[in-house]
# Entry
Amino acid sequence: MVVGKIIAVHSYKGGTGKTLLSLNLAATLVKHGKNVCLLDLDFRAPSLSTVLQIEKVGCWLNDYLNGTCEIDKVLIDLSDRFQNKGKLFVGLANPTTEAIRNMSSKDRKWEMRALGRLLALRNSLLTDKGFDYLIFDTSPGLQYSSINAIVSADLIIVATTFDRSDVDGTKRMLRELYDLFEKKTEIILNKVLHDISSKSGKDEVDSKIKDIYQVPLLGVIPCFCDILRGEGNIIFAQEKPEHPFAKILDEIANKIDNNMA
Amino acid sequence: MAKQEVLGKKPLHILEKIRENLEKLNEKMEVMIELQKHGRKDIQPLPEAPLDVMTLLSMPDHLRKTAMTVCRLGRATAEETAQQTRRARAVESAYLNQLVIMGHLKKERKGRKAYFYVDRESQG
# Structure
């Protein structure tokens, strides 16, 4: 039996497009017939509940990590909304100020237990429930919750841009975080302004990224005005499958599926 | 007949005890060798040292690999850990015992097997 995989989408800086990528990657994998569970582990700035416009939530991921409810109570089935071959479930982080403050003040022992509960998802969701992928949308940088997610994952997708401080920070994280945990890491370069419509333009960006980071490049995503115009209300993989962004995600999802098989 | 059986079992029982004690002694020696090798003669047993990710990050590479494997497996023997890390069982045994001494792992004996695990519930 093939057991599913855990992917953590992480970045050094905020605003690199982690949530957009996580959600659209999840939707793309579902479109490809995979059963996916997308979990919002960005407890500092939860956004999936807003993006997905989900108002009624019984239990949050915060409650699961606090040990006050089981993961079954947290997951929300969105398969009907997506109507694809695969199923999509989501687990949301509580966006209230009180919950954010509460999650920011946890001690080491709590974080250790939270790591245990994240690691337990491999059995409860991948082995028992048969999900093909768990996707963790994380907080940027070296937050406890993000490192817990990284330790629990099989593949780290690092969303980065050509911003100089982002490049430097991402390089440091590759060396001092992902390498130390011996994690398979791949890069998605987002918001690219270079012309990558030609093969030579794309090759140039590819080789530049490989030189800088020395890790495989999963995909290059141009800066699309349509995405900005969408104001976070459009799930391109689902609603605009012919858009170039959705096409790039198709390629990325295929690469992930082939690499993880 | 019954008396003969009892007499026959006694030496076996004694041998089993000797073997167990030798294994314990071996583990202790492995830890001492390991501590010397890494120049950490000052390590004192810590009653409680949460194995959180920041602790994992600050560990030497060789111990981090072992600790991560136990985290992933939940509960493991030195043999099971060695299968994952592809290092020798004796090496893993030494590292696991060192992590116990440091207070990061707990150890429990069941028969002849020693299991190592992260005690997430009792801490705190």
Remarks:
- The interface with chain B takes residues 107-113, 115-116, 119, 144, 147-148, 150-151, 177, 180-182 of chain A (CB under 8 Å).
- The longest strand of chain A covers residues 184-192.
- The mean pLDDT of chain A is 91.
- The CA atoms of residues 54 and 138 of chain A lie 19 Å apart.
